[in-house]
Amino acid sequence: MPPKPYDILFEPVKIGPLTAKNRFYQVPHCNGGGYRDPSAAAAMRGIKAEGGWGVIFTEQTEMHHTSEITPFIELRLWDDRDIPALNRMSEAMKAHGALAGIQLAYSGINGPNLYTKEVPLAPSALPIRTFTNDPVQARALDKSDIRDLRRWFVNAAKRSKLAGFDLLCLYGAHGFGIFQHFLSRATNQRSDEYGGSLENRARFVNEVVGDIRDAVGDTMAITLRVSLDETLGDLGFSNAEVREFIEMNADLPDLWDLAQGTWEDCSGPSRFKEEAAQEVLVKGIRELTSKPVVGVGRFTSPDVMARLVRQGTLDFIGCARPSIADPFLPKKVEEGRIEDIRECIGCNICVTGDMTMSISRCTQNPTFMEEWRKGWHPERMNAKGSSSNVLVVGSGPAGLEAARALSLRGYDVALAEAGTELGGRVAKERLLPGLSAWGRVADYRAYQLSQRPNVETYFDSPLSAEDILEFGFENVCLATGAKWRADGVSRQHVVPMPIDPGMAVLTPDDLMDGRLPSGKVTVFDDDHYYMGGVLAELCAREGCDVTLVTPSAYVSDWTLNTLEQAEIHRRLVAAGVKIVLNTGIAAIRADGVETCCSYTDARGHLGCDAVVMVASRTGQDEVFRALKAREADWQDAGIKSVKLIGDAEAPGPIAWATYAGHRYARELDGAPIGDALPFRREITELA
Ligand SMILES: Cc1cc2nc3c(=O)[nH]c(=O)nc-3n(C[C@H](O)[C@H](O)[C@H](O)COP(=O)(O)O)c2cc1C
Ligand code: SF4
Question: Residue 590: pLDDT band by 50, 70, 90 thresholds?
Answer without folding.
Answer: very high
